[in-house]
């Protein structure tokens, strides 16, 4: 008998334009970041469930009987994606031993796993034994949607194993994706995981992890854009710690202090997002040219200045922008700002040696830097040979 | 008999907020810059007129008979400040030997002098002999209103010598100023000089040179603000050459390219100017506090970002802002941008040694730097002992 195995990956997320302005009713563009989280699920014949998350040094296992005891009639009837079963969350916190208020990454990830596992299989005759291994290219806590990528992988693998959604990969394929309807379901379950981890997430991160590409986010509505190009970027983490809450509050204070000065800036950011969307649409329509890249670069520069005006810049980000501009590359912060991460646009013809030198410059500043892309596909099923060897090796080692 | 002598000074000009936006109907604040041009006029008994401008290496003299030959009936009848007597300008160009189109500083200054001299004295029985000496603390061609300060001094000294306006200085005074009506006349004659030198000036520079303080400039209307504080600043010249015309055209192009993005930025700049005006008014009303200085600093930072968005920044200006911010001081470009000059706000309690170190940092960048103030008085008559010794020495040496 063949062991049922699912290898799933989901991308991280970056904000291309509109961070902070989106809080005040403006358009933001969220993009998939091709630094991915990989999950391997093997349905096993033992009576145990193993989860191995070497990134966050979390390795746990439970007997099926223990887990079965957590399922109640309510869990079976409840099993829904519209509301969170808070009593189950409470039981799981007690079971794993995570006090209320604790937000440690490993603990939260385990809670999300157990919640989705128990909810998805609540209707099954019995809980299945399985081993999950997770490896992520994403740094955690950097605002790059690593928890959402994890939840999307979890939801996809568990729903596939349960049979609620298909396992779309055929023998001839390296990667495969799901139908629109199935992705809706994946996204809803991933959102439940995000709720457990973050409390009150916007839902943008899991949507990006599911659909990939570029999503327009406006007034609470998330719309995946059809047909957008993939763009090469450098993703840099300044590693300067920041509090998103404090930064968001700071922008609000600034609006209250100088409404006539800051409100037009938010208008301008809104127009930056819309102009960027138009430009990307034109590029994908086959007109992609250096002229379009110049526009994308100008928009990046403009928005970075606007974010500075909103007070969410940081000297580390100024340094980053200066260092990349010295190489002719344009950068902006992505996400909350005040440090954190930034994206640097690369053109299709940007020379490899120039990219290498820029990465070295950025590393010399003490930053982490990855060459990756934005606009990549969302959640995917992989054949083992389509996954980078080093990652496959990690996933196979558990 | 006592030799009639007039010592006059007028300040330069900086733009505090609103450069470029003013071209598109927004409010700008023009401020006097306490780097001054000094002029000494002595009515002599010889039959000659001497003008000595050591800054620009221009030393000329004419016989009164030569000059008298330039006065025609038209000059006498025309002598007006509403329109320029273009036939007189043409005769003066021929007389001095300046071909049409030449804009050399010395030549233009001489043209402006001769035009105002002949026009002001056209109604007199005969032209008076005199010696004028001019010394300026202002660099020329740096967008700091050096030509306007010169024209204001010229107009004031010549109108005083002719008796059209008073000579307000009494024996007990160090400095004195004129009535509002007299300043109107000074300003109109200075504007004629500016027209000769610049062709189509806005009139802001001569207004600042005349009234000093802070002027609001909006939709072609210039309004001196009552009761504004003097602010200590560093004035830095990056010495990066730029073309105001090219920069103005660049902003226009950017508005045409991204109207929905750039127009709100101009709105925001307008609000920066208005907020600054309100803050300065409050400060002069006696409420001046560190809180007000914080607002002024924030406005400077915001506007500098906006000017970058408009595309009139320059790496030299980025360096300047970074160098001063490292000392806790806030800077923005002033005027056309693309290099040129910048202002750095100093607080009343900014330490002398910190100012000294900052000036040294800026000089190490290859910039010229002056410690001065904005909002200083406009045109003044001076007693000899009220003028700095070194300047008086220069003026007396001719």
TrEMBL record, chains A, B:
Pfam families: GHMP_kinases_C, GHMP_kinases_N. This is Mevalonate kinase. It is found in: Cytoplasm. SUPFAM superfamilies: GHMP Kinase, C-terminal domain, Ribosomal protein S5 domain 2-like. InterPro entries: GHMP_kinase_C_dom, GHMP_kinase_C_sf, GHMP_kinase_N_dom, GHMP_knse_ATP-bd_CS, Mev_gal_kin, Ribosomal_Su5_D2-typ_SF, Ribsml_uS5_D2-typ_fold_subgr. PANTHER family: MEVALONATE KINASE (PTHR43290:SF2). Its main location: cytoplasm. Catalyzes the phosphorylation of mevalonate to mevalonate 5-phosphate, a key step in isoprenoid and cholesterol biosynthesis. NCBIfam families: mevalon_kin. Pathway: Isoprenoid biosynthesis; isopentenyl diphosphate biosynthesis via mevalonate pathway; isopentenyl diphosphate from (R)-mevalonate: step 1/3. It comes from the Eukaryota. It catalyses: (R)-mevalonate + ATP = (R)-5-phosphomevalonate + ADP + H(+).
